[in-house]
Amino acid sequence: MEPVGDTMPIAELLDERRHLLEVAHWMLGSRIAAERVIDEAYREWYGLSDRQRAGITAPRAWLSRIVGTICLARLSLPDPPGAAQGSPRERGRTDTAPASDVGAELLRPWNTLSPAERAAFVLDDVLGMATGTVEGVVGQSGPEWTEPANRARHSLRARRAEPTPPRRQDEIAHAVRQACADEDTERLASLLTPDVTAFFDGGGKVRALTRPVTGSEGVARSLLTLLARHPRTTLQTYPVNGRTGLIARYDDQVAAVVTLDMAGSRVVQVWVVLNPDKLRSWNR
């Protein structure tokens, strides 16, 4: 389990990404080329092992050096950095794709699971395959596939067994928002089930948690860190996927969309979308 202490406030996440974009844009003179460089830099970051990342004391400085190295490599190429950026029509299709992605993401929140995790859940729970068969198909064994399958199964079954009326859903969502605004860990934890799970979808494009956080205290602390009060950050309830969820803004930009899966009077799973591509339709 990734330590909850690795969580970063939204303000820091976006400031870091903006800083890296400014560096790349200044060097290459193209916003589109800069975006691609930033994506490549974050891929290198997530390509490191957990131990390697833990050993980097100044991640922003490390990422800045990677961005500079990538930009210098591109500038050494014979063609200008923006020469292969595609037509406006092609870029329009690229922008349309993330908008479709966010709809699918919010309609089917378990898409934040990896393909192997989703396969484990479908094969094991829906198709009822034997354990050994599932392990062979997904290429993993033991907890590597059973834990995510159990998480997804638990949330869906809990919601079916003890559905939360719409009015109660609204009340719980508003209570979660208020607990976050008050930075009240104990109050927030009381609104979560003891085995609640939180998923953070950064898409490899911001330095967010890459593994789920479980347990009411851990999830509460991770959410309060991510949604920490800041002069330029706001948090409000908002319709998300047909239910009341949370929207976090940094300045006027939507920086996070939070979906709350509930059973009875508590939250059983939290899904946080931080991927800038999946949030583009929220920022038009």
UniProtKB/TrEMBL annotation:
Gene Ontology molecular-function annotations: sigma factor activity
Biological source species: Streptomyces chromofuscus
Residue spans of biased composition, Basic and acidic residues class: 159-169
GO BP annotations listed: DNA-templated transcription initiation
InterPro entries: ECF_Sigma-70_Domain, NTF2-like_dom_sf, RNA_pol_sigma_r2
Residue ranges of the region described as Disordered: 78-98, 138-169
Protein name: RNA polymerase subunit sigma
